[in-house]
Amino acid sequence: MRASAQAELETDEQAAPVVEPAVPEPHMSSVLGKAHLVLGAFSSGSTCLGLSELSRRSGVPKATVHRLGTELVQLGYLSRTPDGYQLGWRIFELGRLVPGPAHLRAVARPAMLDLRAATQAVVHLAVPHGTDCCYLERLGGRREAAVVAAVGSNVSRPLTVSGRVLLAYSDDQEDVIADLEAQRADGSPTADRLDPAALRAELARIRERRWAQERESCMHGYKSFAVPIMYFGGDRVIATISATVPADRRDDQQLIHALLATAADIGRGLSRQNSSRTEPRPRVGMAG
């Protein structure tokens, strides 16, 4: 797998990258700030961290990590195992309640299931998160375990087909391209994989035809297609839906049409729910 495959086709079993210890910023000197650094140390993808490693990755002294860890375990934000600390159930419970992603997943998942059943493709739902592309949902079988992006993972937008759709409709695409040009001028190995001029041309094609594709640039033997999701009647992209299939399949147009129909279905569902929230509702349980 190529380095860029950490995007659309990332496995859960991949080893976590080496993470340099964080340097606490001035506003992180409070107890809450240090707790934020400790919890943030798990963002590299490691599921369990020992005391020393947790201290190294967070930049928080070991004694403070031990004290905070004990309190976070009691509150349910961390759990203790024989091998160290891992994120607790309270994190999962609260994460499911974040309004934007939770609402989008609830509306999108039935349509994604239909798309998965109709195409037998690996289906991903992604949203913009800062300057990255974040995967909110995935649907795939055991045979496609190697081509499923990790839910919650953040990837630089130019590296995946979903991210490039988001970038094509974003206001900062020229800033991203300028940054790539600067990195190439500095000899950055990451920028060597991306040609700014080719990326600009590709983004223009995506806006023109409203879909993007890649073939075996993330994983050998597979290709992916992605389309934008917008509110019905609107033009602001709020998410993308993508389908990944074996590269030798010969039904590209059918896949693209299925993706566009699914995206439109999700957009209508989001618009209906938003409309119902703004309409006055009758009071319940009160006498006339």
TrEMBL record:
Keyword DNA-binding: yes
Start and end residues of each IclR-ED domain: 90-276
Alphabetized SUPFAM superfamilies for the sequence: GAF domain-like (SSF55781), Winged helix' DNA-binding domain (SSF46785)
InterPro entries: GAF-like_dom_sf (IPR029016), HTH_MetabolicPath_Reg (IPR050707), Tscrpt_reg_IclR_C (IPR014757), Tscrpt_reg_IclR_N (IPR005471), WH-like_DNA-bd_sf (IPR036388), WH_DNA-bd_sf (IPR036390)
Signal peptide extent: none
Origin superkingdom: Bacteria
HTH iclR-type domain ranges (all copies): 29-89
Protein name as annotated: IclR family transcriptional regulator
Keyword field: DNA-binding, Transcription, Transcription regulation
